Request: fold
Amino acid sequence: MTEAWGPDDGTRRPGGPVRVRVPAKINLHLGVGPVRPDGFHELSTIYHAISLFDELRASPGDTLALTMEGEGQGELALDDTNLAIRAARALAEHAGVPAYARLHLRKSIPLAAGLAGGSADAAAALLACDALWGTGLSREELADVGATLGSDVPFLLHGGTALGTGRGEAVSPILARPTVWHWVVALAHGGLSTPDVYRELDRLRAGGRAPESMPGLDDVMAALRQRNPEVLGDVLGNDLQAAALSLRPELSDVLKAGYEAGAVAGIVSGSGPTCVFLAGDGAHAERVASGLAEAGVCRQVSTARGPMPGARVT
Ligand code: C5P
Reply:
């Protein structure tokens, strides 16, 4: 089925600015298989979009330019290497239109944090430019263009809770009864490079110091259906956690502090260094967040809910 993605409220002036909001992702299960011939690892993962958002505004322009504010300002390159710029160019090439737009990013998702902030910005740029240029691609077509830019881009266009296979780019929604899950997000000082974390996992496995891909995906699916945080907390798992902890041993203090603050469970998010903690409800999440903040082991602590929709025109 193809579904044209226009503005959601029908009020946007044609050719006028388009605003898109896009969530961060965490992985409730991240099973990492062997390295493939293309250098990527085969994944089986359960993605979950949370209420930590980047916003991207696209306006008409006579060139392609990107400005930004917020997380990573002064650090994030705004040139042709930026994933939002690369996404706009990829869409323009795919649709056969000139890549002219002024993009402005308001970032809340930190860089290199294991929250897919770069992929989120690519997803937002695809959707925003599609609306600005009237190219009218379906969500699936945008996801196909996005998959060439980053493994998590297709998921960030879809959002919700979804199964990811292949290198993560093959996404199928998980249909569960609507449930709100409450999270505490512990941001770290500095980032971790995703390729470095995958390489560290390969190194640990080669030395017999990390297990091969863990089972447990079906347990997470079953726990999502039960809608019980204790049950879900027992089965959260991330093969990259051992590698992230090996590169950043102090993350074990963050995980410990989260449990001491009463979290149901804690896990490194994706390739880290962000740690996320599951709470029983919103009030519990607030208590865990203040306990964790008092422990003084992370840069910033906030609460979030999931699942959230993927990139959306606002
Ligand atoms: O696709 P993405 O840009 O997120 O990938 C960043 C890096 O993470 C890749 O270049 C690769 O080193 C590693 N990666 C991997 N296997 C995956 C996804 C990412 O090895 N399935």
